[in-house]
Amino acid sequence: MRDALVAAAFRLFLERGYEQTTVDDIVALAGVGRRSFFRYFPSKEDVVFPDHERCLADMTAFLAASDEGHEPVRRVCDAARLVLRMYAENPSFSVQRYRLTKQVPGLRAYELSVVWRYERALAEYLRGRFTGRPDGNLRADVIAAAVVAAHNNALRSWLRSDGTGDASTTVDHALGYVQSAFGTPPAAPDTPAAPAPGRPQRPGRPGGVEDPERPEDVVVVVSRRGAPLWRVVQEIETALGRG
Q1: Exposed e or buried b for every residue in 30-65, given b needs 16+ CB within 10 A?
Q2: What is the pLDDT of residue 201?
Q3: Are 174 and 150 in contact (CB under 8 A)?
Q4: Residue 53 to residue 83: CA distance in whole angstroms
């Protein structure tokens, strides 16, 4: 019944337009009564987004099942992929909805409210993980917004291509920016790496400045706060032996 109502609604939206289609038109085409419609959808707008409530519940359950072993930024990125999976399950319907939403201001506003609920779910999880950290709530809100922005940018790119190509690859690429900017990299092994064969290890230079011939070395330069930029660059070049 639910799927029949969605199919009837979109058929009418495409034929007549969203604004010109009423709930009575939808139930007449589906062959059911108004009560049946409102049993599944509180409003006409909800029939355009029939799967978001389920997806939001799945995301909330996914985050609730997390433990301390899950890296929090990677976890919220994985939660966002649940939304992508919902869209990718039915590409033709997702593309139709995208086109319709672009044409109807009221649907765009409704969609923004749905996106905000996803973002709040991600932020609430991150706030719990960052409790006690400096700027924990701020960090949680910024990361949640970044995840949603990256996901939606890639998703819309896929929808504009009429749902062709691999949506997962596009979204993974976008979320990779978030993970690299905010995520915690995997812990390094406890044992130091062995030197490259045939190349002797070089001791560090006095004063804490390491040998610049080794790419893994770190050079620390101390400069007064008011020094002009060219002087700072000159000091760096001198420390690197490139003056």
Answers
A1: bebeeebbeebbeebbebbbbbbeebbebbbebbee
A2: 46
A3: yes
A4: 11
Long-range contacts of 236-243 (CB under 8 A, 24+ apart): 239/209, 239/212, 240/212, 241/212, 242/212
Q: What is the pTM of this model?
A: 0.71
Dig out the tokens for 205 from the structure. Answer: 């230079």
pLDDT bracket for residue 136 (50, 70, 90): very high
- Asked if the structure places residue 143 within a domain, the reply is yes
CATH number, domain with residue 176: 1.10.357.10
Contact residues for 32 (Cβ-Cβ < 8 A; gap 6+) = 1, 4, 5
Q: What is the pLDDT of residues 12-63, one digit of tens each?
A: 998 888 999 999 999 999 998 899 899 999 888 889 988 898 999 999 999 9
Structural domain range at position 215 = 206-240
